TrEMBL record:
<comment type="similarity">
    <text>Belongs to the acyl-ACP thioesterase family.</text>
</comment>
<dbReference type="InterPro" id="IPR002864">
    <property type="entry name" value="Acyl-ACP_thioesterase_NHD"/>
</dbReference>
<keyword id="KW-0378">Hydrolase</keyword>
<dbReference type="InterPro" id="IPR045023">
    <property type="entry name" value="FATA/B"/>
</dbReference>
<feature type="domain" description="Acyl-ACP thioesterase-like C-terminal">
    <location>
        <begin position="163"/>
        <end position="257"/>
    </location>
</feature>
<dbReference type="GO" id="GO:0016297">
    <property type="term" value="F:fatty acyl-[ACP] hydrolase activity"/>
</dbReference>
<dbReference type="Pfam" id="PF01643">
    <property type="entry name" value="Acyl-ACP_TE"/>
</dbReference>
<protein>
    <submittedName>
        <fullName>Acyl-ACP thioesterase</fullName>
    </submittedName>
</protein>
<dbReference type="GO" id="GO:0000036">
    <property type="term" value="F:acyl carrier activity"/>
</dbReference>
<keyword id="KW-0275">Fatty acid biosynthesis</keyword>
<dbReference type="InterPro" id="IPR049427">
    <property type="entry name" value="Acyl-ACP_TE_C"/>
</dbReference>
<feature type="domain" description="Acyl-ACP thioesterase N-terminal hotdog">
    <location>
        <begin position="3"/>
        <end position="130"/>
    </location>
</feature>
<keyword id="KW-0443">Lipid metabolism</keyword>
<keyword id="KW-0809">Transit peptide</keyword>
<keyword id="KW-0276">Fatty acid metabolism</keyword>
<dbReference type="InterPro" id="IPR029069">
    <property type="entry name" value="HotDog_dom_sf"/>
</dbReference>
<keyword id="KW-0444">Lipid biosynthesis</keyword>
């Protein structure tokens, strides 16, 4: 397959008050890498729309070992694999300047046909763009990433009592050029649900080590969302709903103590 590598320096706006890389910023860096990969293959940003189709992000599974990378260069490498001609599994591995693996991720995408309003197979010619006639087996490193990351979607739990519930009002800049809430914003919302006006101690004392997220429904501009959260030791599980009570997103974090 044709992989792609892009280096980025972690900017001040991409770290939190403790200079730790913010998870939503890390997610955006992964998104940026995949966009540059697509363009490098000769595909215009709107190449699917011109065919009456659109890529839809279904899920993320992310692992970030450390986060003290402010003003440091990180190297992002991505490659795509296709499963049953329906799912695109885009993998990422991230290294620091010394070549040490600092994180990895997989995003799962599907294709929706505009006219039919349903999921369709990834066009064969699109799949071929990501591969070469000289392709060989996965490298040892790539195989490790694929084997280490589950693409099974996060499931909704049956919960009687949540630890927290919080309403958040949408902001103008939460909406991206697709006309709905950007995928990184749901991560921000889920993390914010662990704070109150009087208490920010959990986020002060902890950082995310693992993220699993499944996108169920798009959120259009305006209104509020309701986040329900269950906090259990080093894990937190979140459900995000719109004002009509429709489930938008499921999120699960694994946390560790901030060093």
């Amino acid at each position: 397959m044709k992989d792609y590598t892009k280096s980025m320096i972690v900017d001040f706006k991409e770290v939190d008050r403790y200079l730790h890389l913010k998870l939503d910023a890390f997610l955006q860096m992964l998104n940026t890498t995949s966009m540059y990969h697509t363009v490098s293959l000769g595909l215009a940003p709107d190449y699917m729309e011109k065919r009456g189709m659109v890529w839809v992000l279904y899920s993320w599974n992310i692992k970030l070992f450390k986060g003290d990378y402010y003003a440091r260069k990180l190297q992002f490498t991505t490659f795509a694999l296709f499963h049953k001609d329906i799912y695109s599994h885009r993998y990422f591995l991230v290294k620091d300047e010394e070549g040490t693996l600092v994180g990895y991720a997989v995003s799962v995408w599907i294709v929706i046909d505009f006219e039919k309003r349903k999921m369709v197979k990834v066009p064969e010619d699109v799949q071929k763009v990501y591969f070469s006639q000289f392709d060989s087996e996965l490298t040892k490193e790539q195989a490790y990433i694929v084997e280490s990351l589950s693409t099974a979607p996060l499931k909704k739990r049956k919960i009687q009592d949540y630890t927290y519930e919080k309403e958040i009002e949408l902001r103008f800049h939460d909406i991206d050029s697709n006309g709905h809430v950007n995928n990184t914003v749901y991560v921000e919302w889920a993390m914010e649900s662990l704070t109150t006006d009087e208490d920010e101690s959990f986020l002060q004392d902890h950082v995310v080590e693992d993220l699993s997220i499944v996108y169920k429904k798009e959120k259009m501009p305006g209104g509020k969302v309701l986040i329900r959260c269950l906090l259990e030791d080093s894990k937190s599980y979140h459900e995000i709903y719109d004002k009509e009570g429709c489930l938008l997103t499921l999120v699960e974090f694994t946390w560790k103590k901030r060093s």
